[in-house]
C-alpha cells in the first residue's frame, strides 16, 4: 500500500467515525441537560441593557416574562448545529491524530495544533448553522434594549432563506473571524484534557474513573472558556446580526474592525468587567456540559469498540 493510500485509510477510518459519533452523541445529551444555562448566558451577552445577575435570577425573569418553556427556546436548531459541529470536530481531530502521529507519542503542542486545524475546518463548515440557531434562540425574547429588531422565522430553513434574501449569503458567515480566533477554545480544551489524561495514566496505569474524566473535562473547559470569553461575546453579537458592519473595506478588515469596535465599545460602556458579562452563566453551563460530554464520549466510544471487538487505538488515549 502506498503512503498516499495509507494516509487516506487513516483519515477515512472506522476509528475516527466512532470518535465522531460518540462525541456528537455526548455533546447533544450534555447540552440538552444544561440548555437553560446557555439561554441565560446568551441573553446577558446580546442584551446590553439587561442587568448582570445570578443565573437563577436571569432564568426566573425569563420564565416569568416569557413562559415556562422559554429557557428551551431554540433547542432544536442548537442541537442540530451542535451535533454537526462536534461530529466534524471529533472526526477531524482524531483523523489528524491518526495521520500525523503514526505511532509516535502525542504531546501538548501536537494536541494544540491538531485542535486548531480541526477547529478551522469546523468553523468554515458549520458557521451558517450557528448563525441561524442564534437568531432562532433569541426570537420572541423580551429584550431590555429597544434598538434590537424583532425577527420572524418559522423554522431553520425559513431562517436560511430570509437571511440570504434580506442580508445576502455572506451574512450566514457573520462572526466567522472571531470564530476562527476562538478555535483556540476547543484546542486549548483538548490539549489540557488529553494532557491530564496522559499524566494520570503515567502514574496509575489503569483506565480512568468516571469522576476523573468528569473533573478533567470540567478543568479543561473552565480554563479555555475564561481565556476566550470576550471574543465569545463579540461572536454572539455578530451572529445575532444586530450590529451594522462596515462594508467599505475587504471582508477581513471589516471583520477585524467590527471585533475591535465591539470590544472597545464594551469596555467604554461597562469597564473591563463588561467583557466578562455573563461569564458566570457561561462557566456554569459550559463547564458542566463539557464535563458530561467528555464522560459520555469516553463511555460511548469504549462501548462501541468493545461491542465491535475492536481494540481502542492507543492514540485515542
TrEMBL record:
- Membrane: present as a keyword of the record? yes
Q: Which UniProt keywords apply?
A: Membrane, Repeat, Transmembrane, Transmembrane helix, Transport
Please tell me whether the keyword Membrane is annotated for this protein: yes
> GO MF annotations for this entry?
ADP transmembrane transporter activity; AMP transmembrane transporter activity; ATP transmembrane transporter activity; coenzyme A transmembrane transporter activity; FAD transmembrane transporter activity; FMN transmembrane transporter activity; NAD transmembrane transporter activity
Q: Which residues cross the membrane?
A: 12-35, 74-92, 112-132, 208-229, 279-297
Q: Which GO terms describe its cellular component?
A: peroxisomal membrane
Solcar repeat copies, ranges: 14-99, 106-199, 208-303
Task: Report the superkingdom from the record.
Answer: Eukaryota
Kindly list the places in or outside the cell where this protein is found, as annotated in its UniProt entry. Membrane
Membrane-related topology note = Multi-pass membrane protein
Q: Family assignment?
A: Belongs to the mitochondrial carrier (TC 2.A.29) family.
Under which name does UniProt file this protein?
Answer: Peroxisomal membrane protein PMP34-like
Q: Which organism is it from?
A: Salvelinus namaycush
Gene encoding the protein: LOC120034159
